[in-house]
Amino acid sequence: MSNTTNRYFLGVVKLNLPFRVEQVELAPLVFVPAFIVTLYILAGIAALIHGPAEPAPQEVAESVEEDIQEKPSGIKVSNLVNDVSVEGGEIDLAGADTERMIPKLTEYYNKNHDCIGWLKIDDTVIDYPVLQNKEDNGYYVYRDFNKKEDDTGCIVMDADAEFGTGTKANNYEDGSKPSTNMIIGGHNMRNGSMFGNLDLFRKQSYTQQHNIIKFSTLYEEREYEIIAVFLSQIYMPDQKNVFRYYTFYEANSKEEFDDFIKNIKKLQMFDTGVTAEYGDELITLNTCTYHVTDGRLVVVGKRIK
User: How far is CA 210 from CA 5, 63, 271, 299, in A?
Assistant: First the structure.
C-alpha cells in the first residue's frame, strides 16, 4: 500500500470515530454472591472486546426515520470558535497572501494557521471552519480550533487534498489549483454537531432541500451541487476488488474520473438527477456510520460556482 493510502487509513479511520473508549471502573457490589459478580465482570469484558452487534444493512435503511427524529439539531459554530485565542499572541502571517483573503477568514487564519476555509450548508448545523494539517492528518481528531483537547474535534480536509489558493475566475493563475476531489471529514457526534446530522442526507427529500454545499477557501467562495449520497467503508489493505472512494484525489485521465463517478452512482442511495463530467471539481464529505465495521456515510458534490 502506498504511503498516501497508509497515512489516510491510519488518520481518517481515527478521524471519524464519534467517541473515544475510556477506561471503566466497576464499583464494588454489595451483598451479591461472588459467582454473580464474576459473571457480571466477564460479560462486561466480552462487551468491551466484541463491541455492540452491527445492525444488518436493511436495518440501517429502516432506521433512517428514527435517527432523524431522535438526533438533536446540533451546536452552532459561533459557540465553538468565536472566542478562541492562540497562545503567544498574534501569529506571523508571512507566507500567506492576506491581502487577497476573504476578510472573515483572515480573522480565523490569524487565530490558527491550519484554517484553510469555511464549510456551510444553509439551514443546517454544518457551518464550520475547515482545518488541514499537512504533517499530521489526525491532529484535530481530538483537538478543537484552539489546538486544545476536545472529543468533538474539528472539520478537517484530508492532508493529501489541495484546497487551491487560486481562483477559478483567473484560471488559477493567481495561485494553485484545487484537487479534483477534496475530501473533508468530521465526527458523527451524537449531539448533532460537526457531521452529526450528515445522516439526514440519507433522505432524498432532505437532500433535495439542502442540495448546495458552500465551501469558501481563504481566497474564493465556491458552491457545489450534491450528485450522490452513499454508504461505504474503510477497507483493509488486503481486500481486493473494492471501491476505495477515500483514495481518489486527482483524476489523471478521463477514465479515472469516469470510473469514480460510475462507482459512486452505483452505490448511491437514490438518484439525485445530477452527475459530473471530466474537468469538474468535486467535494466529498464523509463521517462514520455503523452499517458495517468502519462504515462511512458519504456525500459528494460537484462545483457549480
Answer: 31, 21, 15, 12
> 266, 189 in Cβ contact below 8 A?
no
Q: Show Cβ contacts of residue 267 under 8 Å, excluding neighbours closer than 6 positions.
A: 228, 230, 231, 232, 243
The pTM assigned to this predicted structure is 0.74
24 Cβ partners below 8 Å, 6+ apart? 44, 48
The residues, ordered by sequence, that sit 6+ positions from 185 with a Cβ below 8 Å of its Cβ are 12, 15, 16, 155, 156, 158, 195, 285, 286, 287
Please write the tens of the pLDDT for every residue from 38-55.
444 444 444 333 333 333
What is the H or E stretch that residue 286 is in?
A: strand 282-289
In sequence order, which residues have a C-beta less than 8 Å from that of residue 52 and are 6 or more positions away?
A: none
Convert the pLDDT of each residue in 204-259 to its tens digit.
Answer: 999 999 999 999 999 999 999 999 999 999 999 999 999 999 999 999 999 999 99
Q: Enter the CATH code of domain 3-21+58-303.
A: 2.40.260.10
